[in-house]
């Protein structure tokens, strides 16, 4: 019998092409890469241009209303392209993946009939079979929480693909969330907390390192809730995993995100003090500085708990820099509650922070609370918070001027005489071309700052030297 897929490839000059668009968090970036890998095994090549593609996959985010709505306007634009393609006799298959897919399932096809496939984050390993069904004319919705381990079933990334992605890599070690903060959709879109087994993570990390990756960022919705059994059958936590990963030849830097304050255990705090590969930069969201609001958010910690925790982390690693997430305008938030958030930010002094206006999400308890804060009040509070954070972020960057910092060289710069790397604190650093090779960790003296990056001595940044604050 003829394999119709082979026929399809054979009658065209090129292999089938997939265009993947990614929204949302780093886990979606990682998932998109793995979907690309799975499709490569099916003969697809990835393309940067949608006009070129036979299959477009949109990997979506449901965290805030605007993120979810963006998908429908995008599908509206693709609809025109799909109609053109049908006229040309070169069909375009449209798939929606990610957290909107999980949350809305078949509703997506009802609202946007051009969608052929809706696939949730737990079933990406079944993507080839789902596409097979689509090719037979079916509309497919696969949003089960699969019983099998998707990571076990997704194919390993080819060394060439790892190299093409550069010297830093994401690695999902934990997925899902059991915390149920009252504003958040993630427990509904990503399901219950699941940890990838120790041996499986180590195996992928070794493969990444063998293909040139120098820095690993471990991902999880609650990455510090990761736990697994070790070879001896005992239970181990994230600190144990980090120590094992630090021992892999080639791995110079480790990071993890996102952590929840309640899961920062003693061993993990200690690892910040004694594991040189673990970068002194921690993203530890707190959301609000008001205990009343923290309680309504079901965060299960107070502002004082958070500050005490930071004191302990800073005792272990005095030069640690912090980043956070904040929501302004959670239902019932008063001016005094917001001021408590400003006070907490002033007390902590963040190197970076992400701030959001509260967005009511369908199905979450927060959406049903009374006293929603008017948009204009949220906008005004967000502006005040952002101004404070900008000040702290710029102050932090300026404090590094004159310091010798280890920088991981990541890629060529905008001009031939430049390279771009990352500081321990994730800031891009413009380097002189002679500073080292891509993948090296080089120590450079910081000469100045640009809006969102640092400039090393001798780098001659492309922005006017007058903007340097050396
Ligand atoms: N798992 C992480 C991050 C979850 S989503 C954690 O526990 O912190 C990333 C950020 O989006 C959150 O930290 C929160 O600040 C923001 N966020 C989540 N739901 C939101 C909502 N409904 N409205 C506004 N911001 C939201
Ligand atoms: Fe969402 Fe809270 Fe879970 Fe983070 S801890 S993913 S904010 S429910
Ligand atoms: Fe968005 Fe899902 Fe990540 S809702 S933030 S893509 S876990």
Task: Give a verbal description of the structure.
This protein has a six-stranded parallel β-sheet, with helices on both faces. Helix content is 37%, strand content 21%. By secondary structure, it is of the alpha/beta class. A hairpin with a 5-residue loop joins strand 18 and strand 19 (428-432). The structure holds S-adenosyl-L-homocysteine, iron/sulfur cluster and FE3-S4 cluster (F3S). Iron/sulfur cluster binds at residues 177, 179-181, 184, 186-187, 221-222, 260.
How do you describe this structure in short?
With 470 residues, the chain is of the alpha/beta class.
Sum up the structure in keywords.
470 residues; 37% helix; globular; disordered N terminus; disordered C terminus; binds S-adenosyl-L-homocysteine; binds iron/sulfur cluster; binds FE3-S4 cluster
Architecture blueprint of SSEs:
Blueprint: H1 4-11, E1 17-22, H2 26-40, E2 45-46, E3 55-60, H3 65-88, E4 93-97, H4 98-104, H5 107-111, E5 117-119, H6 127-135, E6 140-142, H7 150-153, H8 159-165, E7 168-172, E8 174-175, H9 186-189, E9 194-195, H10 198-210, E10 215-219, E11 227-229, E12 235-237, H11 238-246, E13 253-257, H12 266-274, E14 281-283, H13 291-296, H14 303-316, E15 321-328, H15 335-348, E16 352-357, H16 375-399, E17 404-412, E18 418-422, E19 428-432, E20 441-449, E21 454-456
Parallel strand pairs: 1-2, 1-3, 3-4, 4-5, 5-6, 7-10, 10-13, 14-15, 15-16, 19-21
Antiparallel strand pairs: 8-9, 11-12, 17-18, 17-20, 18-19, 20-21
Helix pairs in contact: 11-12, 12-14, 15-16
The structure holds S-adenosyl-L-homocysteine, iron/sulfur cluster and FE3-S4 cluster.
